[in-house]
Write a structure and sequence with these properties.
By secondary structure, this protein is mainly α. The protein has helices spanning 30-47, 52-79, 84-91, 95-102; strands at 10-11, 14-15.
Length: 105
């Protein structure tokens, strides 16, 4: 099966027959993972608030959280030997864009 951009789907460990989300969390990361998911869920709920001030603040916080999560996943992929092109394919951006954004970190 191929990913959204036509390339092979990969898990954090390598090629897969279907897209997957990592369910492996080390003992030290369990609390952080759950806290992040809880925070994201709460922010998503607030993003739909009828009060624009609350909704916009939640959208801004979600944007910051998304940037942090992307950086973590890109570092993880690079540590596992993924190329910039493979990462870019999964993110739906160009290799140059992902390298420019994450290459110096």
């Amino acid at each position: 099966m191929s990913g959204r951009t036509g390339g092979p789907c990969r898990t954090a460990e390598g090629p897969a027959s279907h897209p997957a989300v990592s369910t492996t969390v080390d003992a030290a990361g369990v609390s952080t993972y759950i806290d992040t998911m809880t925070e994201a869920t709460e922010l998503a709920e607030r993003a739909g608030d009828r009060d624009p001030r609350i909704g916009l603040r939640a959208v801004a916080a979600l944007r910051r959280l998304l940037e942090q999560l992307e950086a973590v996943q890109v570092r993880s992929a690079r540590a596992k030997g993924w190329s910039w092109q493979e990462i870019a394919d999964e993110l739906g951006v160009s290799r140059q864009a992902v390298h420019k954004k994450h290459g110096r970190r």
